[in-house]
Amino acid sequence: MVRNVAELLPELEPEDFYLLSGVEQGMRFSQWVKRGKLPSFSGLTPEEVDYRLERCLKRGLIEKKTIQYEGYSLQFEGYDALALRALVERETVAEFGAPLGVGKESDVYEVRSYKPLALKYHREGYTNFREVHRERDYASENRHVSWLYTARKAAEREHGILEALYPEVAVPRPIDQNRHAIVMEKMDGVELSRAKLDDRQVGGVLELLVAELASAYERGYVHADVSEYNVFVGEGGVTVFDWPQAVPTDHENAREFLERDVTNLVNYFDRKYPRNLPAVDAAELADAIAEGTFEGL
């Protein structure tokens, strides 16, 4: 798990961020940034670079490696610090709270501004870089792609999709985005995998979820990874989240992904609520969504 850097922000100085930004700029060209290039990337003098390197290394914001040369790379903590500082300066984030969820490809925290919000750091490409580089459209065509680029593009893509879908589709309201971080409205309810629906709710919740997939399809997107772990169920209805891997409906595999999403939901309800699930055919539901004729279960 990546360490929470919120507590470090008060002790970091502007020049520390110049150094971190310089390493970030250098990583556009190579995984390890030569020490000799950091003055030009950061705008600091060589002496100031030396001092700031020590401070950032001590705090675990950067990593040093001596290969054919002395090189430096951002840790995710350093990238988090850059994104969080930008969001604080924009007054998007005023207070930082507890973790809401930690996964392989993202960490989510509660934050506050004018109301409770959620801050999501994308982690794509850090530990599973080769897999993400191969499978994600926004990474597959680039020869040199650092995990910074992969995570930032995932955040940009998800934020853009949320903006395109909200409020017509039940997705978290997007608030702001910087680098690999997204701020969105905090969702009400509980994850579908942990929800305990009564007999009267089962068919209705499944129908609501399929209707949201249909609404998203109508607006040009297929989620492509729907499961019981990225759906929230609450008193106000359902919310579908985690959209970075979504594909446009004109994607060559969109119909396949759509049927897989519907199948995932139907199979989950069939396993957990076998006696309460109405008779449904996932392939037929996907056809109805794709043809714009879905009217309910």
Topology (elements, then pairings):
Blueprint: H1 14-26, E1 33-34, H2 38-42, H3 46-58, E2 62-66, E3 70-74, H4 76-89, E4 95-102, E5 106-112, E6 116-122, H5 129-135, H6 147-165, E7 174-178, E8 181-185, E9 190-191, H7 202-218, E10 221-222, E11 231-234, E12 237-240, E13 247-248, H8 254-272, H9 282-291
Antiparallel strand pairs: 1-3, 2-3, 4-5, 5-6, 6-8, 7-8, 9-11, 10-13, 11-12
Please tag this protein with its features:
single chain, 297 residues, alpha+beta, Arc Repressor Mutant, subunit A, Phosphorylase Kinase, domain 1, Transferase(Phosphotransferase), domain 1, 5-stranded antiparallel sheet, 3-stranded antiparallel sheet, 9 helices, 13 strands
Concise account of the structure shown:
This protein is an alpha+beta fold and 297 residues long. The chain is built from nine helices and 13 strands.
